[in-house]
Amino acid sequence: xxxxxxxxxxxxxxxxxxxxxMDLSDRTALVTGGGSGIGIEIVRALxxxxxxxxxxxxxxxGAREAAAGILAEHPVARIDNRHLDLGDLASVRAFAxxxxxxxxxxxxxxxxxxxxxxxxxxxxQGHELQFGVNFLGHFLLTSLLEPALVASGRARxxxxxxxGHRRSxxxxxxxxxxxxxxxxxxxxxxxxxxxxxxxxxxxxRLRPHxxxxxxxxxxxxxxxxxxxxxxxxxxxxxxxxxxxxxNPRWRRPDQCAATSVWLATAPELEGIGGRYFEExxxxxxxxxxxPHRGVMPYALSAENAxxxxxxxxxxxx
Length: 317
Hints:
The chain is built from 10 helices and 8 strands. It is of the alpha/beta class. The mean pLDDT is 94.
């Protein structure tokens, strides 16, 4: 990839490293899932650099406690915690209405919240939970907040995908596992491919208004995202070894937050969109020799993004 974008940061860099020396006091940011795991570190970095940060989280109490910890470090941090259940489209609509009422302009939006490999569960509207929360709820939220992103004139939309996307494209005919046996790993992969395509889709929509959208693999970290996997299942997937030691490729949450924050703030990414990143650099194509990095072509296809939009619009109607 001759024009591959790289940076001074790498896998060891933290979100705090990325924003060091930045003044984001003129930015309004929104982070979903900002009350736990990697999300806390995204909020900590943005708020610590002066941005006003709206946090949408299903666990409002936990998010408030997380914000209190950030405020102890950064007493002038501006954090607005609000309840958001991405598995209930009515909650998404109510949240978006409140944000639009209070914040007519959004400069940064990081779709970070997610769920991974639960048993078969469904959203309030009956959709498979991983597709519903990871993609569909975010699709509706981003669609509703699009006027605020457009109003910014320089919006950065960041849609968090995963290396797990490599296992499967979206099933456009049966996204809810109504006609096939449920496979929770494949369901996660499909949802994360959809998250990548969300960025491709919205990049085309925001670009005429000065905005961009990108997607990323944050990398592995032992956060609450693992709660649906037993230790044996974590061993089978290579997340931990026989003694329970975490895979050395995995990183701390503040390191996994770095790429999201870099995509949201880096001056050198002005005008760059529709691309997939990891470790604060643009990814190359996935190849079998490097199974833990890279992007599948179907996850960056404009044709697939258009097809997914048509599907999503039917599902939220």
